[in-house]
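Supplementary material to the annual report.
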Amino acid sequence: MTELTLSQALLLIIWGVLVAVDLVSVPQAMICRPLVAGTVAGWIAGDVEAGLRVGVLFELFALDVLPIGAVRYPDYGPATVAAAALSAGAPWELGLGVSGALGLVLAVLGDWSLQLVRRINARAIQHHAAALAAGEGPAIRRLQYSGLARDAARGAALTTLGLLAGWLLANSLRIDRATALGLTLVCVGSALSAAVTGAIRSAGRDARLRWLLGGAVVGLILAVLR
Amino acid sequence: MNGSWRALLRLFAVQGTWNYERMLGVGMGYAAEPLLEDLKTVDPVRHSEAVVRSTDFFNCHPNLAGLALGAIARAEYDAMPGQQIVRLRTALCSPLGSLGDQLFWAGLVPGLSGLALAAVVLGAGWWAIAGYLLAYNLVRLGTARWALKTGLDTGMQVGAAIGRSWVTRWIPRIGVAAGFAVGLAVPLVAAWSLEGIGTVGAVGTLAVAATGVVVTRWFGPALTVIRFALLAMVLLLVFRWIGL
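Predicted assembly:
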């Protein structure tokens, strides 16, 4: 991890808040996608290439997520921001594994924090039940804005925690080159398995499966020709 | 009916108070507020009832919520019986959820992700990111505007309007395109990620990937991909610690 200046750290936290609220609350413009969140975080931290690598890694993990109905899912946004900051300045093959591990733990915490916000939202609604039953507009607006504020606070807390954990890891973790490389390879392998699992599950057994296989063949040919 | 632009803007925050009790309910009430304003002067009692109904339980895909919002607002202005409006609201939950999930979460988003990943590997860099955001948000904005307008125009007939719409026709097309895009991206990203790693490292990574696919499918929700990844990393650290 390169030493972040105070303004870089603040910008990363602001970016973490934006990607956290984008996941569910507002505006769902897909800046929360790891590829976007990671690349911008890498740019803020001064290493676009590292951010792009982390973004690609977590984008593969995110392809396993199908956020339908009320299903629980990891929040890869702030996780990717913190992981990209940790990865900045290090050779990608040595930094990606440790950053990936930090990001995965944060993504799980993100899932847990989303549930917490949803439970607090429900309690706030119960608290304002009488006002809602009376059709009071100000109560609706208050509930809406406080829900958004809670989600923003969640994003700020997650990103700050991630940056602090990244700073601690960068300054205290001592692992040899082979172990760091091994962690990267395990992380990349797991991310590929996530993308394949997600793709197969979404494909079913119909035309989409055939197109998935067709795409894989074209991808293989392009990969060889590159 | 005024306030449709404000309602459209508010629809982008329709999940701002998402919870397991009313789900999108309060967000729908928030978005409905500008649409129902005119009703306050025409029929204050009806307006009050409409606002109460607008915050009740509701769930659907956020990008198609405008269909329900517009249809319900239209029905309130058409003075349809309250029970009928509640039934319409309930009836729209599942179809709008299912259509939106197929169109966006299982179609457009993974499809654009796959294309963006492939483009990054092929050297597009920032252009891939910009293209991803631009393409998604153009579709998203267009859909949101169309949804609200269709709901407002059709009212209680919104079900038939959805059945005739482009949404049902485009879902299978976007689905196969998404399948192709993700299929295209995976080998490209794998090759890109393993460049310069060496044969042993590459074989090891692909072995981890294959094991991950098999065991996460075998164990189902008990072993998510994240748990598998963290477990594999802990195992690696243990093996390295004991000198393997």
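Chain A has a mean pLDDT of 95.
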